[in-house]
Amino acid sequence: MSDSKLPDDGPIRRRIEDGVETFEATIDGETIQWDAGLTYSRHLQTEQLLTSQAPVSDKPDEMLFIIMHQTMELWIKLMLHEVREAMAALREDKLGRAGKTLDRIATIMRHMIHSWEVLATLSPHDFMTFRGFLRKASGFQSHQYRELEFLLGLKRADLILVHESNHEAKERLTKVLGEASLYDEVLAVLARAGHEIPQNKLTRDWSQPYEASEAVEQAWLAIYTNPEEHWGLYMLGEKVTALEYYFQEWRFKHMKTVSRVIGHKHGTGGSSGVNYLVKALDLSFFPELWAMRTRMTAPKEGGDYSECPHS
Predict the structure, then answer these.
(1) Which helix (H) or strand (E) holds 22?
(2) Which runs of consecutive H residues, i.e. helices, occur in the chain?
(3) What are the residues facing 17 on neighbouring strands?
(4) For residue 25, what is the DSSP state?
(5) Pairing verdict, β 13-17 and 20-27
(6) Among 76, 95, 131, 263, which is most exposed with the fewest C-beta within 10 angstroms?
(7) Could you give the C-alpha distances from 250 to 66, 114, 246, 283, 296, in angstroms and in order?
(8) Residue among 234, 231, 208 at smallest CA distance from 220
């Protein structure tokens, strides 16, 4: 059918545009258009999204608990996507593109940090009204969170055991465990730029936990001591460090929220709860970037301050 205007039907005007039935109406002084093709709801799958809350109790505060964790999972899904984009850019030595993506991930993390404040409105009594219904369901079972840790460089094969009955999640995590992490790609960039990165850090069994290296720390120290000469790598180091900074802040806020809501009770999944979350604060994705800071020194400058006039 040609793009000819169809007869008006009340306040809604209809026509065919690019083979698709299109509608138009004047609402509040604005000309609003929509069509029979892609709609907002269809694009975002809002019906599926808004019917994905399935409380297991009749307690009113369970809805908050579900939606907060669902939104966390959505943000983690986006971060997984963005981390892979950053890694692809790094493999092509496109540091500017990687940096922009790393900045986005850091912004997502800052948003997630603040989101704990909404969950913290759940009082101990509120949570206890439905906690018993959760049985052994636990955030420890979040395969996306574990995948994010693996992608950033924290590899532990035993953490996949929880997903033994979820074949798809187990297969995905096992695959990611055996692949290079974001930090592995960063070190490869440093090596291609001429820094002396040990070969056993560039080609190794990626499924094994990363072990800090004196040579890698020295490379970062050289970059940070003379940032003007290594500006691209210096900024890359800062953006990567920001990810861990915010990730640790997210972990801390998680720990304090749990402490506020359940104290030092064990988690629903059997972990030690707050004590387990405290231990996680000592885990590091990029150890040399942090250790190097301790070794940096400031040059001695300035005059003989003993000559300064007294106030």
Answers:
(1) strand 20-27
(2) 40-44, 46-50, 62-91, 95-119, 124-131, 143-152, 167-177, 182-192, 199-202, 214-225, 231-262, 274-280, 287-295
(3) 20
(4) E
(5) antiparallel
(6) 263
(7) 19, 8, 6, 13, 27
(8) 234
Q: CA geometry: angle at 183 spanning 179 and 184, to 5°? A: 50
The residue type of 19 is G
31 and 82 together in one domain: no
Q: What gap in Å lies between CA 287 and CA 129, rounded to an integer?
A: 42
Q: Is residue 56 part of a domain?
A: no
pLDDT in tens, 75-119: 999 999 999 999 999 999 999 999 999 999 999 999 999 999 999
Write down the residue that tokens 């009340």 correspond to. Answer: 10
- Is position 157 within any domain? yes
Residue 114: name the closest of 250, 243, 242, 248 by CA. 250
Query: How far apart (Å, rounded) are the C-alpha atoms in residues 304 and 123?
Result: 59
47 domain residue, yes or no = no
The model's pLDDT over 130-152, given as tens digits with 9 standing for 90+, comes to: 999 998 888 888 999 999 999 99
Q: How many CA atoms lie within 13 A of 311 on its CB side?
A: 0
What pLDDT, on the 0 to 100 scale, is given for residue 265? Answer: 67
CATH number for position 223: 1.20.58.480
Please report the pLDDT score of residue 106 as a whole number.
97
The domain tally of the chain equals 2
Distance CA 188, CA 93 (A): 9
Pick from 209, 220, 181, 213: nearest CA to 199: 213
Q: Are 1 and 19 in contact (CB under 8 A)?
A: yes
Residue appearing with tokens 């930090």: 183
* SS3 annotation, 84-137: HHHHHHHHCCCHHHHHHHHHHHHHHHHHHHHHHHHHCCCCHHHHHHHHHHHCCC
What residues contact 15, with CB distance under 8 A and at least 6 apart? 3, 4, 5, 6, 21, 22, 24
Domain carrying residue 143: 61-295
pTM tops 0.85, yes or no: yes
pLDDT band for position 3 (cuts 50, 70, 90): very low
